[in-house]
Amino acid sequence: MSVIIPVYNAESSLEACLDSVLKQTCREFEVIAVNDGSTDRSGAILDAIARSNARLRVLHRPNRGLSAARNAGICMARGRYLGFVDADDFIDPTMYESLWAVARHDDADVVKCGYRVLEPGRTPRVVQRPQSGRIAWTGGRPAVLAYLANGIDTVVWDGLYARYLFRTIRFPEGRIHEDTFTTPLLLNAARRVVLLDAALYNHRKCPGSITGSFSIRRLDEVWARVQLWRTLEGGAVPGRLRDAIDLQVARSISRNLRLAYAGGGMAGLAEACDALGGVIPSTELLRVARNRTINVQARLFLRGVLAGPLAAATLLQLDRPWQAYRRARDAFLAGNACPNAP
Predict the structure, then answer these.
(1) Is residue 213's pLDDT more than 80?
(2) Separation CA 54–CA 28 (nearest Å)
(3) Torsion sign (Cα): 68, 73, 79, 83
(4) Is CATH 3.90.550.10 what the domain over 2-204 is classified as, yes or no?
């Protein structure tokens, strides 16, 4: 197998990351580190370790972003299966041996495990599906539906993927939310997908990540959902699958425009609404707004977006009391739950 590590200015965590990968209990694997134009000591660290460990192959290149670095690693890979590790993270010693054993036993093209989210000052949080045992899907539509229902995680660094899947699939260069684009395509192309009930990857969540703030680039999340329409049978997506994609599109739009309004007021919302027009055509947005499998509140907000930033802002303002009520209700119910109730 080949493990691909994109590296950009990661000198503080790089040695620990590489140490965890190079000490895997499995025998036959290579590590490809792509130095994506680092300006710190990352390149020197990679070269020093490569001189003493033949498993590590290093590529130095100008900075082009995470997706381009991963794609370069894919082109260099010689393994039958590919894994991805971020340079800020580290993995358990048995991760790839465990994933490879399942891939071989179940003849699976994609095998994913759970992971731990590590944040400064907080207890590690385990993300694991399923909670016990293992679960498998036939690849294609069943696996994509499971993914859209949050049964399969978006991230790629928690898994092992048959190399042949990347004959026609690459990470989207110049965009963020690259895994939101790539993961469902891999699941759709796979013959069999298996989830393992063990948290074997350790993901460091750094302060200042994009998850809590807004920039126009965050609309790449919506773009990725829309591309799924385009890819699956040229847009002729069956009803249940299209409904699931529509729901994710609606949620992505709502989440990001709320962030735009919270961070930039009317000006931020207007800018985001304008940029959204370049991501999803108004005809497609109207079709999503008419999809009755999506809740009324979300459909009404999409109608507001189509009408313009003022209408969207009005709906967001009207929604605030309802959101506050729900938070207060949930807190009240949680505080008054009877611990001895059967």
Answers:
(1) no
(2) 12
(3) negative
(4) yes
